[in-house]
Design a protein that fits this description.
It is a single chain. By secondary structure, the protein is mostly helical. The chain has one domain: Up-down Bundle (Four Helix Bundle (Hemerythrin (Met), subunit A)). Helix content is 76%, strand content 5%. It is globular and about 45 Å long. The two termini are 15 Å apart.
């Protein structure tokens, strides 16, 4: 198992345990998002972006000529995964930022949605 997938699985397990605990729904979403990062990078990287071969997100950022790793990764996801998966990845990213920087008051329904989206992203990355 790759290090990226291993890291993603670890974050996924924590996200699930937090969800079962019914207290830290903001962290359910955040750990789901960070799990998704590892899964999508494991699926997509290494790859060619424009004319450059990229092994990691820093190289992707440089190839796209973008400022941030998160925005570069989002573009990479939209360019390389099915739209329905990319939209779910973006939802996790947006909701994770919202729960970290705006309010930690996340509903159980939103946390459940994060768990479902993570499951679908993982399946898209590892189904044969």
């Amino acid at each position: 198992m790759s290090n990226r997938k291993l890291h993603g699985e670890r974050n996924k397990k924590l996200s699930s345990e937090l969800f079962i605990g019914k207290v830290y729904y903001d962290w359910v979403i955040t750990t789901a998002f960070y799990s998704a990062i590892h899964f999508v990078e494991d699926k997509i990287l290494p790859c060619k972006v424009t004319s450059e071969y990229c092994r990691n997100i820093s190289e992707v950022k440089k190839a796209y000529r973008m400022n941030g790793r998160h925005s570069s990764r989002e573009r990479l996801v939209f360019d390389n995964l099915p739209l329905k998966i990319a939209v779910k990845y973006k939802w996790l990213d947006d909701k994770s930022r919202y729960s970290r920087y705006t309010t930690f008051k996340i509903t159980p329904t939103e946390a459940d949605k994060a768990q479902q989206y993570l499951k679908e992203i993982r399946e898209a990355c590892y189904s044969k």
